[in-house]
């Protein structure tokens, strides 16, 4: 290849490279302008918005909450105590509000109704969740806060069958009060639990310990995922029985 030909080819490559670079710069400039436009619109809507380390936008907003949670489920005024406990408490607080929303419009006489066989009705779900509050209090070293339940766990423990009312289930009022009382104690205690306790070994055995090896793992599940699993069953039950969505 002649020197002149090589020079012409290099010049051509340079022009293509420069054009590509200009295209990339233009694309980046366009994306940046779009991001600024979107951020400006968001900031005008939420003037207290801040930028987080992971690149997402977070805003502190004042919202109107039409729900009327009980005193045990109202947010605390300020984030004091152990951050991990506060995180778990936030999840539990939401679960307790959701439980109230789901159950408050269910007629008491229908609380044990089974639209189909093998359906977990509200009485079973709420009673099942209620018995675990005392277990959590024991795990976090606050057995002194345990609530005396007016029923045993025989018909609500893991593996117990859910059946139509045959006299074994307490009333709706008793079950809902037990749920709120027990988990209300847990909600109060969580921010006071130390990291040392949360990092301790899960005292349970079997598959539960395998899935959740530390006390923190177990408590986090019981205050969040486990609650929503069974409250989701109540939500499905409402639709199956014609009561519809709670919201």
Would you kindly provide a brief summary of this structure?
This protein is an all-alpha fold and 247 residues long. The protein has eight helices and two strands, in the order αββααααααα.
What does this structure look like?
- This protein has 247 residues and is mainly alpha-helical.
- The protein has two domains: 3-58, no CATH class; 81-240, Up-down Bundle (Four Helix Bundle (Hemerythrin (Met), subunit A)), CATH 1.20.120.450.
- Helices cover 55% and strands 2% of the residues.
- Strands 1-2 form a two-stranded antiparallel ribbon.
- It starts with a helix and ends in a 7-residue tail after the last helix.
- Residues 2-77 have low confidence and may be disordered.
Q: How would you describe this structure in keywords?
A:
Four Helix Bundle (Hemerythrin (Met), subunit A); two-stranded antiparallel sheet; 247 residues; 55% helix; mainly alpha; single chain; disordered N terminus
SSE blueprint and pairings:
Blueprint: H1 3-45, E1 50-51, E2 57-58, H2 83-103, H3 122-139, H4 172-189, H5 195-198, H6 206-211, H7 215-223, H8 225-240
Antiparallel strand pairs: 1-2
Helix pairs in contact: 2-4, 2-8, 3-4, 3-7, 3-8
């Amino acid at each position: 290849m002649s020197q002149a030909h090589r020079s012409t080819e290099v010049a051509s490559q340079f022009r293509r490279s420069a054009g590509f670079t200009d295209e990339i710069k233009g694309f980046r400039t366009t994306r940046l302008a779009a991001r600024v436009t979107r951020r400006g619109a968001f900031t005008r809507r939420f003037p207290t918005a801040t930028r987080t380390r992971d690149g997402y936008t977070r805003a502190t907003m004042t919202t109107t909450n039409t729900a009327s949670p009980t005193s045990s489920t109202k947010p605390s005024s300020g984030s004091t105590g152990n951050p991990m406990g506060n995180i778990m408490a936030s999840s539990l607080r939401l679960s307790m509000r959701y439980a109230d929303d789901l159950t408050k419009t269910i007629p008491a006489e229908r609380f044990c109704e089974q639209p189909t066989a093998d359906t977990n009705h509200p009485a079973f779900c709420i009673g099942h969740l209620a018995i675990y509050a005392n277990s959590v209090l024991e795990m976090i070293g606050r057995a002194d806060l345990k609530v005396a339940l007016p029923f045993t766990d025989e018909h609500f423990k893991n593996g117990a069958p859910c059946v139509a009312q045959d006299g074994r289930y307490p009333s709706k009022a008793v079950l809902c009060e037990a749920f709120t009382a027990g988990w209300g104690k847990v909600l109060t205690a969580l921010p006071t639990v130390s990291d040392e306790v949360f990092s301790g070994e899960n005292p349970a055995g079997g598959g539960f310990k395998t899935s959740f090896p530390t006390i923190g793992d177990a408590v986090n599940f019981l205050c969040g995922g486990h609650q929503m699993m069974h409250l989701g069953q109540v939500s499905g039950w409402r639709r199956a029985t014609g009561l519809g969505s709670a919201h």
